[in-house]
Amino acid sequence: MHAISLLQIAPTLAAYFNVPLNSPARPVASILNFMRARKPNVVVLVVIDSLDLSIYSEFAAELEVLHRLAERDRRLFSFEPISNHTTPAFASLLTGLEPESHGIVVSADVATSKIKSILEILDDEGTPTAAVLDTNGAEPLLGRMSYVFGVENREDIVEYDEEIKTHTLFVLQKQDLRFVLAHLRSIDRFAHRGWDLRVAAHVTNENMRTIADAVSERNGMLFICGDHAAHRKNRKAAHAKIPVPLIVAAP
Questions:
Q1: Which domain holds residue 121?
Q2: How far apart are the C-alpha atoms of 115 and 36, rounded to whole Å?
Q3: Over the range 108-134, which residues count as b (16 or more CB within 10 Å of their CB) and which as e?
Q4: How many domains are there within the chain?
Q5: Model's pTM, two decimal places?
Q6: 181 or 113, which is more confident?
Q7: 15-29, 71-85, 206-220: lowest mean pLDDT where?
């Protein structure tokens, strides 16, 4: 497992797609070389909320698809969390900037920010992109990229993730599409509530199995990562810096 920075993910994607991105972080050479060798038709970035290395390891049996993908191409990386909160972590992931540089704290900030994400930059350069997110995260992106799908937040988070998966599968049928962002949240909700994480891990695994099959059909590439350490009940604050995994695979 190789340690990288979350801030390097967007620059790596920008370098592969040959678009400008204003970030001090450098691309990850091994990932960039892998992408250039495989030449994927589409790249799908799935952020699994609260997937940290502790969750990834503890529930290896339930997350067998993720482990199989990591072993397949031997592209497993780890990075230190940038933020303990989803929105600023997402913004850093997609801009390559530290939270104090992008200033995005809540979803509404995206609508007023002058800083563009890799999604918007690609679309501006003529490379169609898609986002499949909760409604609050999706609404500020409407009109700023080719395909935006918002899913209403709800108590039944398993049903929510099912909708995220369904929209992701649908948009992958768009042959002009080159980059997709999707956000699965079952693990995060179960961790917050103190529910059985084996159930959430299994649900996530099955969703990823279906998404991976669809990406394979498109001769695509998957980036799978968490956004921050899981907010597990009884976990001490010191554990907030548990590293987060990144899997890069051509399923």
A1: 2-105+114-249
A2: 27
A3: ebbeeeebbbbbbbbbeeebbbbbbbb
A4: 1
A5: 0.95
A6: 181
A7: 71-85
The CA angle 89-92-94, to the nearest 5 degrees, is 110
CATH number at residue 65: 3.40.720.10
N residues, the chain: 251
16, with CB counted inside 10 A (0-12, 13-18, 19+), is: buried
Residues 11, 31, 44, 87, CA torsion sign: negative
pLDDT of 234 > 80? The answer is: no
**Residues contacting 49, CB < 8 A, separation 6+:** 86, 183, 184, 185, 187, 188, 226, 227
Q: 25, 201 in Cβ contact below 8 A?
A: no
Number of Cβ within a 10 Å radius of residue 207: 24
Two tokens, residue 25: 């972080």
- Identify the helix (H) or strand (E) that includes residue 110: helix 108-112
Question: How many Cα atoms sit within 13 Å of 122 on the Cβ side?
Answer: 30
| Chain-centre distance for alpha carbon 171 | 16
Q: Between helices 86-95 and 9-17, what is the axis angle to 10°?
A: 40
Query: What does each C-alpha distance from 23 to 12, 13, 31, 95, 248 come to in angstroms?
Result: 11, 12, 17, 7, 21
Q: How many CB atoms lie under 10 A from the CB of residue 2?
A: 12
